[in-house]
Amino acid sequence: QSPAGAQVLSPNEATAALERLFERERVVDLVALFKTLGTRSRMSVFRRLSPLDYLASYNHAGRFYTLRRVPSFDENGLWQHQGALFSTHGSLKATTWRLVEQSHAGFTHEELRDRLRVRVHNALLELLREKRITRADDEAVFLYLSGNRSRAAAQRNKREQRDAVHVEARLEPLLVVEVLVEVIHGARGVPEPAA
Asked: Dihedral through CA 17, CA 18, CA 21, CA 23, nearest 10?
């Protein structure tokens, strides 16, 4: 239904009006769409948006919209505009699955949260229930892996290799202290901090 006195736009007029709106604003909410289309009907708005290949934000409960051609997505298919987060994969659940599935070494919840900039706990639980991903214990945190067994095994191996390299690269704190003490004792004076 249209607000009192508002002119109902034809499909072509609606498309042109939406194109102009997204050119100007890039990201809009439902209120702006209602105003642009001269309607209060959600169904009418989405019927007019459909042919334009739109995306809803995966945060803010999908409250913001953009056209797929507007964002400059990063290598993970993610884009942020004034706090609204979008993904080429659509929803948070679909994006979470895609990231886990395509990862070389799986993801922890914290790693996914940092990458997606939102809490992903519920999406992970749904994906686990649907058996689209698997979960392994990785030193007191869960590691989320592909739902495909052979892919999950390869991801787990990659994670173990990566973790082994990180452990070898770090010196134990006590060893660092012992080395510094020996340097200080062996110096003829107080060494410069850079030395």
From this structure: -110
